[in-house]
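ok so for the tutorial part 2 we go from a plain amino acid sequence to predicted structure tokens. step 1 is just haveing the sequence, like this:
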Amino acid sequence: MNAPFAPTRSSVRTVDLADPGEVDRLEGFVARHPQGTPFHRPAWFVSVARATRNKAYALVQERHGEIVAFLPVDAIHSPVFGRVLASTGFAVGGGLLTCEGAEPEAMFAAVEELARRVSCPSIELRGGLLPDEANGWALKTESHCNFAKPLAGDDDAQLVSIPRKQRAEVRKSLANDLTVEVGTAESDRAAHYAVFCESYRNLGTPVFPRALLDSVIDGFGKDADILTVRHQGRAVASVISVYHGGAVMPYWGGGTWDARRLRANDRMYYELMLHARRRGCTTFDFGRSKTGSGAYHFKRNWGFEPEPLTYATWTQPGTAAREADPTSAKLSLQIAVWQRLPLSVANRLGPLIARGIG
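step 2 — the prediction. this is what the tokens look like for a chain of 358 residues:
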């Protein structure tokens, strides 16, 4: 009589991100996975950790030597906001990716154990397969929405696809003396960062260190670029976009005070739609915005419909939940103070604070 066959169980381990072969394996898994996002790629979560002096981790579950589950996380430390494991850091997406045969609960247990080991009392999963509301996990739904829609077939159709009121703004921008450049050279990066710094100060937000933006551009290579709108030679609006799975995602962008008068932001996004289609993209992913915010309504004006997002958070028993909501009374006051800072002061202090926002 033959002995009964013992089913092979999967195993969970932490990947050595210093091993180029392991990194390539993760990049391949994300590229093949239908729910993979730019924020699952090592080009993102390893790059942002390195640039902000935080720490990146990758948990994988394997069966018969094949990856069946993957969870990237960044351990982010801030003297203002505390410590958190985020999937993934400085991103609007991430979370657990699974295939057939995966055991999600083992992955959630592993990330909880990792959080305790690296002294992070909180975990944030910003997408992917989410845990049940048990064992300290909480689900947050509809606080943010994502906006994405297909690109049109040609330039004229793209303009017509924009709702009438917003289309009128784009037409005004096309009549203004604006020029458009796309690239990743030092001149493109410097122009973008100057605009980005001013835009973030005006919003009351500490600006990210330039090393963070450069690191992502370098990590993504041909899958990232910078589109800049200039008026009389001066950059007035600029955006860094990443490309993944046939979609373009404008991510780090902004405009100067003059950009509004010149409709430079309207020109920037319209030109990006045209540029992305010429690159072979079929989808424009406008990213997430807080429900009801100005950015939320701006994207709706472009004809994008909101898709509510659900995030999961875990707080170690006996510790306080992390507070990083800009609409809270405490942070709203800090934002108001930041908006009044001279630009030179904001640019010096911002990167020191922003590297811990995550």
